[in-house]
Amino acid sequence: MAEEQIARHSTLASSGGSHNRAGMAKKVVLFIGKLLVSAAMLWFVFSRIGLDQITTLLSNALWYWLLAATALFALSKWVSAIRLNHFFRAAGLHLPTRINLKLYLLGMFYNLFLPGGISGDAYKVILLRQHKGTTLKNLITATLLDRVTGLVALVMITLLLVLLLPIPVHLRVMAALCIPLIPTIARWALNRYFKLYTSLFLRTNVQSAAVQILQLLAAVCILKALHFDGDFAILLALFLVSSVMAVIPISFGGAGAREFTFAVAATWLTLPDTAKELAITLGLLFYLITAAVSLTGVVFLFRPIKIPENQPISS
């Protein structure tokens, strides 16, 4: 059964045309390239801090705060899945919430553990395009808009916290000017090019803000687990900046991207070594929590996700 399901996923991943050797070679090179980038980032980080301090922080971490952080992160992904389903429904595809959540978790697994192959978003589009009621173009647009909406909220909240950092005045002014500008441009672009989704602007942006707030609270829990009781503002601002960097697909599932950002930013801000070690440990633990939640999606690699006929539903 498991073998048949794996074969089914492989078939879906390759639909739309067989992979030629050049395409496979490109994927292998991309996969190896991302591994090398992650390895280089982690080498940079750990060559500048003591592993003993990181090990000590990890060994003394309070497990109940880490459990709370995991729960908050999982909740943020549930909200993200609901947001994506709003875009799907606007595109004409009506998925039950539970089916959409299963697809979302499986997509997370693909994104983190198979970054050299088909992405989670591409898998969902390939699977869902077989159903009537929407078009491939609408599915791709809905998926991309969901990503962009999440990124807009992330950048907005990041800019708000950046104002609290000890940075030059002109950088703070630039950040302050961008805060009202970004949603204005986003709303204009949605009205101009994606009228089908205009009614979702407020709802999905509120949901995106909720996602980022939940993940910020998860970061707070991680810091509490590491016995931190100081000023959270700077570390949370750096956490959000690292989240923006982790979105860029240049590393293996984001491994090393957060830690590298923390290390560079902490050095630039001349933070003490203890703060730098704490920030890097925060990045490591958040990545492990992300991996743990994403790993739950492997269940649906072996258990088929049955998608019902496309029809209007209420849940």
Largest sheet geometry:
none
Strand fraction equals under 5%
Outline: globular
Task: Give me the number of helical elements.
Answer: 13
Give the CA-CA distance, first to last residue. Answer: 30 Å
* β-strand number: 0
The helix fraction, in percent, is: over 70%
- Number of structurally distinct domains: 1
The helix/strand order is: HHHHHHHHHHHHH
Low-confidence sequence ranges: 1-6, 12-16
Q: Helix/strand/pairing class, anyone?
A: mainly alpha
Instruction: Give the integer mean of the pLDDT values.
Output: 83
Radius of gyration: 20 Å
Compile the SSE list and pairings.
Elements: H1 2-13, H2 21-46, H3 51-59, H4 63-90, H5 97-113, H6 120-128, H7 136-162, H8 169-193, H9 201-225, H10 232-247, H11 257-268, H12 273-295, H13 299-302
Helix pairs in contact: 2-11, 3-12, 4-5, 4-7, 4-9, 4-12, 5-6, 5-12, 6-7, 7-8, 7-9, 7-10, 9-10, 9-12, 10-11, 10-12, 11-12
